[in-house]
Amino acid sequence: MGVWQSYRLRVRRRYRLARAIRKRRELRSIVNRTGQIKRNDLLLFSTQRNEQIRLPFFLEYYRDKGVDHFLIVDNDSDDGSLEYLSEQPDVSVWHTRNSYKKSRFGVDWLNWLQLRYAHNHWCLVVDPDEFFIYPFCDTRPIKALTDWLDASSIKSFSAMLLDMYPRGPITEQPYREGQDPLDIACWFDAGNYTMSKNSAYGNLWIQGGPRSRVFFPDTPELAPALNKIPLVKWNRRYAYVSSTHMLLPRGLNQVYDEWGGEKASGLLLHAKFLDTFTAKAEEELLRNQHYSASVEYKAYAERLRDNPELWCKWSEKYINWRQLEILGLMSKGNWA
To answer: Sorted alphabetically, which Pfam families does this protein's record hold (predicted)?
Structure first.
């Protein structure tokens, strides 16, 4: 990378941090328990809106995996989720009525919270419908992974988004509050993924899965990106640029091996497609707070009105992380 490009990225990173500091004024602290955070605590950051039905299992899942403290931005919920989060002893929560779109889809808000509270902590950034899995996740907590990453001088860890869905119409099986969504959405696409390298940021750009196959069959280039870097040993100089797809400094995006080997990687099991999703898609389409004039949610709403089914004869049923390693969707690298 040339000197000029390096300079431009440095200016861009400083701009993102300055923007996050400015956007902090949009956040109102509801309950701030960050004084409980200890030196080696694992932190989780998230934004949410009207996810009350998902939150009990979401918090239970990540507590079980070793998360010590949750820092959550509530974007003007009216379903009781703000009140629920406020009552949780390991959650700090902020509220905002400001535009999700104008905060770069929540990135500005979380960049500020990480700048303020996450320096020198391992941090996981996920949505309430994303469930992080990694090598040996059935027997080892996330801190076993971060200990190994520290010992290996690795500061960021990738996890491709893997869309999960039920067999049959997604409207047929009602999801209950507190239920593991993967009990219902337990199928996925094992193939049809494409990958390219972003020349500016150095990250991989991955597309495919059921959202490409079902919602963007004629324009797969418009399908949502699936590449994520959700786990980072944070430093106050860092900033996410676009969701968790890429970061600055640029070196944090080098989470893959270009010389024929395999770096350890994980997955985010994405349990978006439950019976609650049809109404959610219609609501988000009306709110128009998502990327590219909500083109993604337009495709969801139009397709689901006619046939709310993502399953096909090539779908695979999820068993465990080893199955996904065999399929080449994640890797344990040299972590034994």
So the answer is: Glyco_tranf_2_4
| Greater model confidence, 230 or 191 | 230
**How many CA atoms are closer than 13 Å to the CA of 168, on its beta-carbon side?**
6
Residue 291 confidence (pLDDT) above 60:
no
- Find where tokens 């390219």 sit: 196
Q: Has residue 282 got a pLDDT over 80?
A: no
74-78: long-range contacts, CB 8 A cutoff, minimum separation 24: 74/30, 74/47, 74/48, 74/49, 75/47, 75/48, 75/49, 75/100, 75/106, 76/49, 77/48, 77/49, 77/50, 77/51, 77/52, 78/50
Mean pLDDT confidence for 125-142:
98
Task: Answer whether residue 142 shows pLDDT above 60.
Answer: yes
pTM here is 0.95
Strands (E), the chain: 28-31, 43-48, 69-74, 91-95, 122-125, 130-133, 156-157, 159-163, 187-188, 194-197, 204-207, 231-233, 239-242, 246-248, 266-270, 316-317
